[in-house]
Amino acid sequence: MYIRRTGLILLLLLLLNAGLYAQQNKTGVKTVLTADSLASGNLKDLLTSFFQLSFTNLTGKNRELNFSSNPYAVILKTNPAAASDQQYRKYRIHRKFNFGFGLKLDEDYRFNGFSSGIKYALINKRDSTVSGFLFAELGKDSLNRELDQLAEPVAELIQELDKTEEEKDKLLDELNEVLTNQSLAFSGIDSSLQRLIRQTAVKKKLIYLSRLLKNKPQVILAKEAQQPFKELKKELQQKLLWTVSVSDTTYTDQFMFSNLVFRSDILKGMGRSKPGANWEFSLPVALNLQDDSLRAGRDLRRSEFSFEPGINLVIRDRDNEQSFLEFKLSGGYYHRFAGLYPGEKKDRIRFDGTLRVRLIGDIWIPLVFSYDPKNGNVFGFISARLNFSGQSKK
Question: ∠378-382-384 over CA atoms, to 5°?
Answer without folding.
Answer: 155
